[in-house]
C-alpha cells in the first residue's frame, strides 16, 4: 500500500508506543482496517514493516493530513500518547484537520479531571470526544484489554463494536463498558490502578514475610504463589508473582528478584486514587498505604541511614507464629477490604459527580483483560448487583470469608509487627476492618477536645441537638 493514500480505514490511532502499537494490531486482527500515525515517521514505518500478515489492514501515514485523509468519515481516532499536555497538543493538532462530527478518543491513562475538562471543552464546541481507560499492559492491548469508557453515550455507541471486538472476553462477554459521562471511564481506570497498587503491595508484604520472616528462597516462595493461584486468590497478579519469583538472572545466575533494587516507580494513578479518596471522604486506606509504601521505598539512602542508627529489626518470625496458610488467608482478607474500599470510593464519586457508575458492571469489566483480574471479581459483581450501596465486606459471601480469614490477617500483622517487618497495607486493611466492625469508637474524645478548644459542639448519645461540655474556662 502506498503511504497514506487510501481512504478506507474504519478507525485511526495516533501514538505507536508499546500500548498504541499493540492496540493497533489488535484492532487490525479483529478485521478493522486501521490508519496509524506517529510523530516519528521511522516508528510508523517500523511498525508497518513488523505487522506481518496484518500489514494489509494497516495504513501507515507519515503526516497528520494523510492520516486524516485515510479515515472513513465520520472519523474515529484513538489517541495513545502520554497523558498530560501531550494529549491537549495532539487534540489541537488533529482537530484543526477534522470535520465537526469526527470523534477523538483519548485512550491513555489520563487524569479524570483532565478528561472532564476536555469533555466540557468538546461539548461546548459540539465536538465528539471520549476518554477511555484501557488496562492490561502490553499483552492485554494486543490480545484483549479491559476497557472503561467515559463521555457522551452516543459517542461510545459509535465505536462500541470495535472496542467490544478487541476487548478481553469473560465467558463470552466483552470487558468493555461505558461507565458514564465526562471523566467517568478514566476515573474507573484510576481506581483500578489504585487497587492494583494495593494488591501488589499486599502481595509484596507477604513475600517479605516469607523471604525475611520465614527465610524462604525465591523458588520456594514461587511454589507458594503458584499453589495460591489454584485457590481463592487466583489472579493475574498472583500468577505473575509466582513467575517473577521463579525467574533466574542471567547475569548473576541467581534469582532475579534478589538483584532488583527495592525502589518502586510510579506514574501517578495510585496517587490520584488516594487524593480522590481523601477528597471524597471515602477512605481507601489500603491504597493510601500502598502509595505511601512506594514513596518510602524510593527513599533508599534515608532508609539506609535509619538502619545505621536503629539497626535492622530482628525480622525472623518466632517459630510457629505464622505459616503460609495464614498468609494466604491474610491476603484474602486484605483483598476483600481493599476492594470494599475501592468500590466505596467509586460509589462516593458516582454520587459526587452525578455519574451513576454501574458498580456491578465495573466488577464484570475487571474479570478479564486487566491487571487486577481475579476470580474474586465474579463474586463481587454478584454482590454488587444484589446491593450496590452496601459495603462489600457486608455482602454475605464476603462477610463469611472475612469471618474465616480475619484472624489470620490479625496474626500476620501482629507477627510482622513484632518482628519489625513492615506490612503497611495489610495493617491498614486490618484497621479498617476493625473500625468498621466497632459500634462505639473513641472519637467521642475527639469531639470533646474539639468542643473544648473551639466550641465546635458535639452530639449526645441520649439527646438530640448540638451540645457543649461543662468545660472549665480560666
Ligand atoms: C494497566 C496498568 C497500566 C500501567 C500503569 C501503572 O491497567 O494496564 O495499570 O496502566 O502499568 O502505568 O503504572 P505505575 O505503576 O507506573 O503507576
Gap between N and C termini: 89 Å
Number of domains as seen in the coordinates? 3
Taking all Cα atoms into account, the compactness measure Rg is 25 Å
**Whole-number mean pLDDT:** 96
Bound molecules: 6-phosphogluconic acid
Spatial strand order of the main sheet: 3-2-1-4-5-6-7-10
Say what oligomer this is: single chain
Q: Label the overall shape.
A: globular
What fold name stands as the CATH topology of the largest domain? N-(1-d-carboxylethyl)-l-norvaline Dehydrogenase, domain 2
Strand content: 5-15%
CATH class of the largest domain: Mainly Alpha
Q: What's the helix count?
A: 19
Helix-strand makeup class: alpha/beta
The CATH superfamily label of the largest domain reads N-(1-d-carboxylethyl)-l-norvaline Dehydrogenase, domain 2
Order of helical and strand elements: EHEHEHEHEHEHEHEEEHHHHHHHHHHHH
| DSSP, total strands | 10
Secondary structure: helix percent: 40-55%
Please tag this protein with its features.
two-stranded antiparallel sheet, disordered N terminus, 10 strands, 3 domains, alpha/beta, globular, Single alpha-helices involved in coiled-coils or other helix-helix interfaces, Rossmann fold, 474 residues, binds 6-phosphogluconic acid, eight-stranded mixed sheet, single chain, 9% strand, N-(1-d-carboxylethyl)-l-norvaline Dehydrogenase, domain 2
Amino acid at each position: 500500500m502506498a503511504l497514506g493514500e487510501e481512504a478506507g480505514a474504519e478507525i485511526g490511532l495516533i501514538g505507536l508506543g508499546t500500548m498504541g502499537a499493540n492496540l493497533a494490531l489488535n484492532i487490525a486482527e479483529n478485521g478493522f482496517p486501521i490508519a496509524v500515525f506517529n510523530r516519528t515517521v521511522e516508528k510508523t514505518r517500523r511498525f508497518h514493516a513488523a505487522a506481518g500478515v496484518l500489514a494489509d489492514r494497516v495504513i501507515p501515514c507519515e503526516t497528520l493530513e494523510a492520516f486524516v485523509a485515510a479515515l472513513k468519515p465520520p472519523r474515529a481516532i484513538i489517541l495513545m500518547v502520554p497523558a498530560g499536555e501531550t494529549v491537549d497538543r495532539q487534540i489541537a493538532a488533529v482537530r484543526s484537520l477534522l470535520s465537526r462530527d469526527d470523534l477523538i478518543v483519548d485512550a491513555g491513562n489520563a487524569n479524570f479531571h483532565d478528561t472532564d475538562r476536555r469533555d466540557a471543552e468538546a461539548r461546548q464546541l459540539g465536538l465528539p470526544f471520549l476518554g477511555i481507560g484501557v488496562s492490561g499492559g502490553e499483552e492485554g492491548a494486543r490480545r484483549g484489554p479491559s476497557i472503561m469508557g467515559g463521555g457522551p453515550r452516543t459517542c461510545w455507541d459509535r465505536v462500541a463494536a470495535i472496542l467490544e471486538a478487541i476487548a478481553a472476553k469473560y465467558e463470552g462477554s466483552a470487558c468493555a463498558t461505558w461507565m458514564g459521562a465526562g471523566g467517568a471511564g478514566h476515573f474507573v481506570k484510576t481506581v483500578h490502578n489504585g487497587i492494583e497498587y494495593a494488591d501488589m503491595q499486599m502481595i509484596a508484604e507477604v513475600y517479605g514475610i516469607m523471604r525475611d520472616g520465614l527465610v524462604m528462597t525465591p523458588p520456594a516462595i514461587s511454589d507458594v504463589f503458584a499453589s495460591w493461584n489454584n485457590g481463592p486468590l487466583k489472579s493475574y497478579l498472583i500468577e505473575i508473582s509466582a513467575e517473577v519469583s521463579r525467574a533466574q538472572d542471567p547475569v548473576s545466575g541467581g534469582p532475579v528478584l534478589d538483584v532488583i533494587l527495592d525502589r518502586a516507580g510510579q506514574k501517578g494513578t495510585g496517587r490520584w486514587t488516594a487524593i480522590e479518596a481523601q477528597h471524597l471522604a471515602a477512605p481507601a486506606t489500603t491504597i493510601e498505604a500502598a502509595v505511601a509504601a512506594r514513596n518510602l521505598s524510593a527513599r533508599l539512602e534515608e532508609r539506609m541511614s535509619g538502619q545505621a542508627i536503629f539497626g535492622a529489626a530482628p525480622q525472623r518470625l518466632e517459630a510457629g507464629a505464622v505459616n503460609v496458610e495464614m498468609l494466604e488467608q491474610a491476603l484474602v482478607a486484605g483483598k476483600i477490604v481493599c476492594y470494599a474500599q475501592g468500590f466505596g470510593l467509586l460509589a462516593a464519586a458516582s454520587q459526587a459527580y452525578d455519574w451513576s457508575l454501574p458498580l456491578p458492571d465495573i466488577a464484570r469489566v475487571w474479570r478479564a483483560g486487566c491487571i487486577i483480574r481475579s476470580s474474586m471479581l465474579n463474586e463481587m459483581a454478584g454482590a454488587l448487583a444484589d446491593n450496590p450501596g452496601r459495603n462489600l465486606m457486608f455482602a454475605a459471601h464476603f462477610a463469611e470469608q472475612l469471618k474465616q480469614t480475619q484472624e489470620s490477617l490479625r496474626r500476620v500483622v501482629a507477627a510482622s509487627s513484632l518482628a519489625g517487618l513492615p506490612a503497611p497495607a495489610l495493617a491498614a486493611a486490618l484497621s479498617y476492618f476493625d473500625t468498621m466492625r466497632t459500634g462505639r469508637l473513641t472519637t467521642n474524645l475527639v469531639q470533646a477536645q474539639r468542643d473544648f478548644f473551639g466550641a465546635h459542639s458535639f452530639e449526645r448519645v441520649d439527646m438530640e441537638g448540638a451540645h457543649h461540655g461543662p468545660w472549665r474556662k480560666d
